[in-house]
Design goal:
By secondary structure, the chain is α/β, with parallel strands linked by helices. It has two domains: 23-227, Alanine racemase (TIM Barrel); 243-368, Lyase, Ornithine Decarboxylase, Chain A, domain 1 (Beta Barrel). It contains twelve helices and 19 strands. It has a seven-stranded parallel β-sheet with strand order 3-4-5-6-7-8-9. Strands 1, 11, 14, 17, 18 and 19 form a six-stranded mixed β-sheet that branches. Strand 5, helix 5 and strand 6 (111-114) form a beta-alpha-beta unit. Helix 1 (23-36) crosses helix 3 and helix 11 packs across helix 12 (352-358). The longest helix has 16 residues, at 180-195. 43% of the residues are buried. The structure holds pyridoxal-5'-phosphate.
């Protein structure tokens, strides 16, 4: 059997859910961040495929907006980004330098964020190229420990072989403005800077941008806020949402009181109930934890998830939707103006970051150059 390289018949709309990103909303968030940190350079964190949204349109838009510095997590992501944006934007790779990778970093003009002495030595041995140095100020994740910082600060020969483009640290509680850990990390970061040769500094991710100018230093590195996720846990969202996820109704059925729906029969109808089955499931990143907890929207009507989320299908209780407004091919808002990332995350017991980056690979992805008015 031969398989044609390209199917000449386009996929019908309605076969796959649609993930739409509003590029003007991304641009608006970029401006909000620049206004919030007017004296710092705003860099863009585009790791994990621009937080699951899809790197190509986001990278192109940010470049157009004047973004000159990007952060990714891995060498591979850095390579993809470099091929999208070309030179000269700076690309920092947060996860640092894997053993033996210095040549690949140099070949793609990628700058590692060095997180331990072993990485620093390996990078220095490969030649004097720019690098960022990550200092652990209390997150105990990446970055030089206090001992390693002392060793580096005392090693003038090693420092002479380093071209430090950025010294950074990361806040553990930057989403909570009043958390005392922020001030502790701030003072430890200042102390670390005082021990190292003068270099541009960066402490704030999205949350840190909204902690005030003390936290901005020379460069801020927002990710989630660019994409419209609220970076603050207990405050209104300072940015606007950028994504909308819609699915399609495959069919509608009515079940009698007492009948159940879905695996495990965890939804039992307490009255005659109309159900709509939609073309989206946990393989698309809809958390199974939303079983009987999630809510989608058809038009203005909330439609509770009925029973367990399954791999490819989601069943909604659409009893409240007027029957003329529901049927095969009807559009369902899974994420959008009525169901924010934050609301969905709260219902699933997780965070907006995990919802966004967990979105799957089966969507039709649309990048809008204009604001959407009404898609559902
Ligand atoms: C992911 C990440 C960021 C961006 O964080 P947001 O909260 O999405 O703004 C910044 N710095 C580091 C070190 C990161 O790992």
């Amino acid at each position: 059997m031969t398989v044609p390289a390209e199917d000449p018949i386009p996929a019908p709309s309605g076969d796959r859910p649609v993930l739409t990103v509003s590029l003007p909303a991304v641009a608006s968030n970029w401006r909000t961040l620049r206004e919030a940190a007017p004296h710092a350079e705003v860099a863009a964190v585009v790791k994990a495929d621009a937080y699951g949204i899809g790197l190509p349109p986001i990278a192109a838009k940010l470049k157009t907006l004047g973004c000159a510095t990007f952060f990714v997590a891995t060498l591979d992501e850095g390579r993809s980004l470099r091929s999208l944006v070309g030179a000269p934007p700076r690309i920092f790779v947060l996860n640092g330098l894997p053993p033996g990778a210095a040549g690949a970093f140099a070949a793609h003009a990628l700058t590692p964020v060095l997180g331990c002495l072993a990485e620093i030595r390996e990078w220095a041995d490969a030649g004097r190229r720019p690098a960022a140095v990550h200092i652990d100020t209390g997150m105990s994740r990446a970055g030089l420990s206090p001992d390693e910082l002392a060793a580096l600060a005392g090693d003038t020969a090693l420092l002479a072989r380093l071209d430090i483009a950025l010294i950074l640290s990361h806040l553990a509680c930057g989403d909570e403005a009043a958390h005392p850990a922020n001030r502790t990390q701030l003072s430890r970061f200042k102390a670390a800077l005082a021990r190292l040769p003068a270099a541009p500094a960066s402490l704030a991710a999205s949350g840190g941008v909204f902690l005030g100018p003390e936290y901005h230093f020379d460069l801020v590195r927002p990710g989630i806020a660019l994409y419209g996720g609220n970076p603050l846990t207990a405050a209104p969202n300072p940015v606007r949402s950028t994504v909308m996820l819609t699915a399609d109704v495959l069919g509608v059925r009515t079940i009698a009181c007492g009948e159940t729906a879905g695996y495990g029969g965890t939804f039992a109808a307490t009255r005659e109930t109309r159900l709509a089955v939609c073309n989206i499931g946990y393989a698309d990143g809809i958390p199974r934890a939303l079983s009987n907890r999630g809510v989608a929207y058809i038009g203005e009507t909330p439609c509770p998830y009925a029973g367990r989320v399954s791999m490819d299908l989601l069943t909604l209780d659409v009893t409240a939707v007027p029957s003329h407004a529901i049927g095969r091919g009807a559009q369902v808002e899974i994420i959008g103006p009525h169901m924010s990332l934050e609301d969905m995350a709260a219902r699933a017991g997780t965070v907006n970051y995990e919802i966004l980056t967990g979105l799957g690979n089966r969507f039709t992805r649309v990048a809008l150059d204009s604001h959407w008015t009404r898609v559902v």
